[in-house]
């Protein structure tokens, strides 16, 4: 990796995350954007693009933090097999944390635990799909680190949206998650392609 590729990765990640997050944001809040005329739609669109681009900066910090953590952990645990087991344990822990502790913290009377299982499960399925494609394009040892990054690191980056009280239903939880997922997927799949070049 040279500085030119790092700059390309930075700006391309910001662009795809801004576009992806804006599509989700406008879809979830369509009436708010279209209801008050073209000016409101235009400035709302610009604001949403800026907000999603800013969220992508969090994803980029998380990506480079994971790359550093991965190298540090490989030297600390001595074997890749042990570090992979630790990552699998952390994925399971975060999965449990995402549904059970959120249920304890936010469930109102009549809410079922099963309702809180949907989001962590869908996120895990998405992370596994991305990890599968990463493994297919690189090598078999890439699956667990990719799964860990897409699930655990994305969840850590998502925490600011998970802990704020609901302002506009639950839409901000998804508006915040969309650019994170797009940015992290893009970074993960672009890294080995840039290195090959």
TrEMBL record:
Q: Does the keyword Transmembrane apply?
A: yes
Q: Which InterPro entries match?
A: KinB-signalling_activ
Return one Gene Ontology term, BP aspect: positive regulation of sporulation resulting in formation of a cellular spore
> Which residue ranges traverse the bilayer?
41-67, 88-107, 113-133, 142-165, 171-191
Question: Which terms are listed as keywords in the entry?
Answer: Membrane, Transmembrane, Transmembrane helix
Q: Which domain of life is it from?
A: Bacteria
> Could you tell me which Pfam families the record lists for this protein?
KbaA (PF14089)
| This protein's name | KinB signaling pathway activation protein
The species this protein belongs to is Geomicrobium halophilum
**Mind giving the lineage of the organism this protein is from?**
Bacteria, Bacillati, Bacillota, Bacilli, Bacillales
